[in-house]
Amino acid sequence: MKNTLLFSFLPPASVLERALSQFKATISAKELSVEEMLDQVHKIQPAAIVVVPRQKITAEVIKALPDSVKIIATSSVGFDHLDIAAAKERGILLSNTPDVLTECTADLGMMLLLNACRRGREYLSIMQEGWRKTYSQTDMLGLQVSGRTLGILGMGRIGRALADRARGFGMKIIYCNNKRLPPELEKDAVYFKNFHDMLPHCQIISLNAPNTPETKGIMNSKSFSLLPKNAVLVNVARGTLVDEDALIKALESGHLFAAGLDVFCHEPDYNLRLRDFPNVFLTPHMGSATVETRSAMGHRALDNVTAALEGQRPGDFLY
């Protein structure tokens, strides 16, 4: 007999097909609110629920779940939205999908870096308005990426993948991490133990660190002031790493040349003041948004559900 499964959002086609064939699956045609999800859970009494980060699985939500639920699998690397302690107390397993979005997010980080340096948003606006005027040798000049120094905060998988891409553009790599990497991972990058010591050397600074008490708001007024003039900020990590008021001041003063941002302090209701800067290239938190990566995330979540219901505990489980 097939186990009952609730997919609380619409997954990519291959994941949908597998879920329907392997489980007695209820698939939502849209991303459910937590309240809608709980209503469905009590109707179908699933053994497993697959969720996404916007669905906050708090202690109150976990308390409200029926005893049928054995596992909650999030189709994401991040798991800040899951109350691990509450789930453990209820005996409900939790899993995430690490390692599947490294290359995809690094690709987007490089896209943001290039568009911020080469005024991509402004060039696009010119073309959308019809162009129709010539530009002189000193108009609309961007920054040459090749040969620049890229500082990376957080040299984990995504940070290292971004560094590899930047090397292809002839960039010099420096980094700050909670510990120095072994030589085979560090390659030619130069290590800085102290973040503020690294900033004066960063012509471009990329944030690739997780949100922790130590990194929250790490790009503040002092940090921006330590960057060289005409530096560029790139953030594909977490919006909370940046003090957005300080960022706006750095843009207004001209100290920052540009920024490329995929994440914001408040999503989706991001600070619209950032939209007003033509030198800020913006994307709506799409680091993992390719067919390949979202499919891999969904299949990984189903792998975890299968393992849990068979009594196994693979490495993706959070406790």
Keywords, please?
319 residues; alpha/beta; Rossmann fold; 2 domains; 7-stranded parallel β-sheet; 5-stranded parallel β-sheet; 12 helices; 35% helix; glyoxylate reductase (NADPH) activity; NAD; pyruvate; D-isomer_DH_CS
How many DSSP helices?
12
- State the oligomer: single chain
Domain count: 2
Distance between the termini: 28 Å
The helix content, as a percent range, equals 25-40%
Any guess at the CATH architecture of the largest domain? Answer: 3-Layer(aba) Sandwich
**Can you give the mean pLDDT?**
97
Keywords: NAD, Oxidoreductase, Pyruvate
GO molecular function: glyoxylate reductase (NADPH) activity; hydroxypyruvate reductase [NAD(P)H] activity; NAD binding
Protein name: Hxdroxypyruvate reductase
Domain D-isomer specific 2-hydroxyacid dehydrogenase NAD-binding: 110-287
Describe the structure.
Helices cover 35% and strands 16% of the residues. The chain has twelve helices and twelve strands. The protein has helices at 13-22, 34-44, 59-64, 84-90, 102-117, 120-128, 157-167, 183-186, 195-198, 221-226, 244-252, 291-309, and strands at residues 4-7, 24-27, 48-51, 71-74, 93-95, 149-153, 172-176, 190-192, 204-207, 231-235, 256-261, 280-282. It starts with a strand and ends in a 10-residue tail after the last helix. The mean pLDDT is 97.
